[in-house]
Amino acid sequence: MIVRTSIVAISLLALAACGQGSKSPSKSGAAADGIQGSASAGGAVAAKQRGIANPANAPELTALLDEVRKCWDTNTSDAACPPIAKVVALAAADATRAPKLYDTLVNWIEEPSDWHIRQFAAFMLNGRITLKGARTNSAVLGRILTALKNEPAATQPRQAAQTAMQLAQLAVGYANAGAGHEATLVALVNDKTYAHPSARVEFIKLLDPKVGAGRIPMLLAIATDAHDDELVRDSAIGALGHVGEGDRAKVIEALTLIVQSDPSEKMARSSIQALAWSAGSAAIPVIMETVEKRATNGIAHAAAVALVQLASRTAQGGVDAKPIVEAALKIVNNESAGREARVYALRALKWANDSGFKPTADRLVRGRDALLATLVQQMLAEK
């Protein structure tokens, strides 16, 4: 399966306006306006005529179906995938065909039996094919969300999860562009009926940074909900680590609670790093108390990574190096903390520019743990 990330959007109308092969550039504006009704009309097609069976599909795209299946089933690069370039070329050649091509791809995300087609269509609509005003079409957003709800979880789980991710990215693009987008996005993130947690993860990751006051309470509620999916909670916790100053106090309070008492070690590990980013050196006592209380290699590793993050900020000022050094030495000298945690803690000493780094590193090189000694030697060899 091809894992594709977001790419620079190619606007069909922009291509036409620039004179790149358009037969009727003067009609491009009318074509763009026409999509508002044509794309939404596809929602009324009978179930047996959805997807590639929709009679309104552009024949030029229907002719590419076999190529899409073949390409989307192999490990290749986007550049080597012929149907991508062919669809873009079709759009560039005749701007009057733009709405038909766009509508066909919207129809294809509703294809009931072939993930190749659904994923290709979502990928193309995520950037390669776009029209002026398209993303304010609430009817199309509704169809995208319905397709996402219908994405099967049991069959082809890896491909289905990737398709769900593409559809979620697409939905956020439409939701961000429409009126009342904040309420729409909050509703998407809170909707637990999606078969794939990756959909809600994408909703959180792709939230417009300018989303207003509704965002923080929503993320806090998800992060602290022990009954929610861990992938979704982890994404919310990561987002909370980067909130603005005005919301930081309640975020620190929530993250501290998760670190200290959440039954999920995974959530505690994620929260340790988010807490360090939010609270700075003030987070260290809570983090080190948790290292001692929970006493697992995973917790020690998360704490050491957090100390590295904090140490990297000492050069910029505003972060006190002393508690970082003291905490890092405790982990370095704790033989039960695990090699990775001890190496990260040693790196925190290095980045904090502590005078004890070199003697500590030399002692570990001479120690009984040969693998740890090798890892430390590699660090010492870094320039």
List keywords for this structure.
383 residues, mainly alpha, 21 helices, elongated
Q: Could you please describe the fold and organization of this structure?
A:
- By secondary structure, this protein is an all-alpha fold.
- 64% of the residues lie in helices and 0% in strands.
- The protein contains 21 helices and no strands.
- It has helices at residues 12-17, 28-41, 59-62, 65-72, 82-93, 98-108, 115-128, 138-150, 157-177, 181-190, 197-205, 215-223, 230-240, 248-261, 265-279, 284-294, 297-312, 321-332, 339-351, 357-365, 370-381.
- Helix 20 (357-365) crosses helix 21 (370-381).
- The longest helix has 21 residues, at 157-177.
- The protein is elongated and about 75 Å long.
- The two termini are 39 Å apart.
- Mean pLDDT is 81; it is low at 1-38.
